[in-house]
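>> received
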Amino acid sequence: MSNGKLIKRGRFVNRDVLVIGIDIGKSTHAAVGTSLESGFTKPYYIKNSRESFEGFERIMEEWKERFDCKDILIGFESTGHYWKPLAYYLKGKGQVLVEVSTNNTKKSKEMMDNSPLKCDRKDSMVIADLVKQGKILTPVLPEGKILSLREIIHTRENLTKERTSILNRLGKIMDITFPERREVIKNVGNNTSLFLLNEAPFPENILRKGLNWLKRRMWEKSRGHYNHLDAEMLYESAKETIGIKEGREGSGYELRSLLPRLEGLNREIEEIESRIEEMLESIEESRYLLSIKGISLITTAAIISESGGLSRYKRAESVVKVAGLSLYEVSSGKHKGEKRITKRGRSLMRHKLYFAAIQQARKGMPLYSFYKRLIDNGVKKMKALIAVAIKLLKIMFALVRDKREFEWDYKRAKKVSVVA
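>> returned
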């Protein structure tokens, strides 16, 4: 049964519905039951075990009979990851689940008893009360391939963050020991840079290897990107560097520790991206999203997995809300507030859409004319990019809904942008 038959957002729950609020904990969850016209039950504590989950099912049936209810509606806060085993178990048993906003629970706690007191029973009562009032969100609980895709995308994100941290540490070592290096090799993580960090990390190592070695190796590793003039500039900089010579032993040890880890991370990320590509081939939605010029495999995977699949939504606005891109403003009297995005939704989905919007806003891309029109009308760059992200997501939704690939005529768009 869908939650729409039991309750609608913004309206009070039906009279014959048992509402259960669950305060999620690390190893124990507290649940209370109530209905529209009754008080709250005593809390029932659920442990992370099948026996306890099954016991909770029996308790729900007892509460349902006590309050003379026909249906059950379960509310919770999806903070952290501790809620997932219980939520998926209950969903598998056919229970209807809704989510409440963390912001709403924080605001409602003190209003309940005029006290800042926090305890499991009070928190679960607050959650149940919010559900009764219709202050709910629809949780995104993907299954099967899409759930696997979400987990692997999150793994990639964690590995990418770790890689960025290591690159920052390598950059710090270079800035201290050989700051002039960045004048020639700006990206510390490219092939040439990593080769030199392994073979000749410090200025004295470069001088020892010699100019001819440096010219040859920089040319080979960069496939011609760095020429002999670049090598000569780096070599001369090594002679006159202002880098700190003290502490070389410690810096050398850190380099020997970081570089193998970075190499391993690069290998893992490459393997994961290959696996993501394979997984997307079996998900029909990906074909429509990838048909948009400039949309990458990772962006496609993040949008599908974080939303649970665009085909599960009836309206584009619902998908925009899930991404946290819905607009709001704070106005009072004659003061009209500035419109902002809520940022209440799937942060990874929003992050990927924003960077996809930057790509789309470039000349020669499908949404360039839309972006340019906003800029020409005085819209600030950041707001224009958010508008592009929202429009892009709506296009994606329409493509999945209509089961068709994106059609875009660059020559025609170019003519239109020239005329505009």
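>> Confidence is low (pLDDT under 50) at residues 328-332, 413-420.
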